[in-house]
Amino acid sequence: NPPQSFFDNLVQLTAGSTSASATESFEIEQPKALRVLLEIFSKSPLLSNVIDFIDILCKHSKINVLKIHQDEIDIILVDLIQKYREEEENEQSTALVNKILSLFSYIASRGSSVAVVQKYISLFCLVNNRYIPWFHHLTIDTFISLLTQPTEATKLSIPFTSSSEFEVKNLVNSLEEFTICCWVMSNSTDSN
């Protein structure tokens, strides 16, 4: 296990200040230090403290969340969950996976990317093509929560040209509200 001094030094590197500590929030100066923190402590009992520390930084400012997303810390969080796929479920692993999913959800609700979504969807895959991972219900609940919660960002509408078509079939009229989730890709380089 890495010593506590590694943790403290990487916190200071993240802040760009020798006076920073993991119990205080600050603006992130070096987000790559968080990647190193997660990698070094991924199999340590201090991983929970690292997750708590990143959570404090995220809640400090939207800029921190953006830096964390841009440096793909959200993808690393999904990778951490993947490491528990074939392990037995126990109280400690359940608590840690819940904590990681909570942090992931906080980051993803403020900004995400195709790469993050693809990585997250990989959590739904069967283990050895035979059974679902023990944390499957937790990842589904987080996914549903992300799809149904109101976003802080302005909704984006994309106009279709007159030649575009969109048809919804078999929609039951008794639905009060629903969510559609899709990706749209254009092969055209023409901006018109």
The share of residues in extended strands comes to under 5%
> How many helix segments?
8
Which blocks of ≥5 consecutive residues have pLDDT under 50? 154-158
Using the CA coordinates, give the radius of gyration. Answer: 20 Å
Task: Provide a descriptive summary of the structure in words.
The chain has helices spanning about 5-15, 30-40, 45-60, 60-70, 75-80, 90-110, 115-120, 135-150. Residues about 155-160 have low confidence and may be disordered. It is mainly alpha-helical. The radius of gyration is 20 Å and the shape is globular. The chain contains eight helices and no strands.
List the helices and strands and how they pair.
Blueprint: H1 4-15, H2 32-40, H3 47-60, H4 62-70, H5 73-82, H6 91-108, H7 114-121, H8 136-148
Helix pairs in contact: 1-2, 3-4, 3-6, 5-6, 5-7, 6-8
Give me some keywords for this one:
8 helices; mainly alpha; 192 residues; single chain
Summary of the model, kept short:
This protein is mostly helical and 192 residues long.
